[in-house]
Design the sequence.
């Protein structure tokens, strides 16, 4: 397992032969982390309860794209990624003045 973690300018990268909690615990970060862990939806991350969890936007967009492809006729609230997920903001036309 290869993993990394970072906090501002500090980066930690480690490699471990096992996946799951053994590999994650080798980095000695997640067990005591109290911030927000941004990650994919891999289940072992959710076992670290002191930390808050957020799904990585790239993974979220991938999951939503797959869902939209499986149900193309479904009504979706938004078909475009939003600025919060790293896409460029959409330009809105100027409001006409009188």
Sequence:
């Amino acid at each position: 397992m290869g993993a990394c973690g970072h906090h501002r300018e500090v980066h930690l990268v480690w490699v471990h032969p096992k996946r799951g909690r053994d590999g994650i615990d080798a980095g000695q970060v997640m067990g005591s982390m109290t911030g927000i862990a941004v990650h994919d939806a891999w289940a072992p991350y959710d076992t670290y309860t002191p930390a808050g969890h957020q799904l990585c936007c790239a993974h979220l967009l991938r999951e939503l794209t797959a869902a939209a492809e499986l149900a193309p006729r479904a009504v979706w609230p938004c078909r475009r990624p939003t600025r919060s997920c790293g896409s460029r903001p959409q330009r809105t036309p100027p409001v006409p003045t009188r």
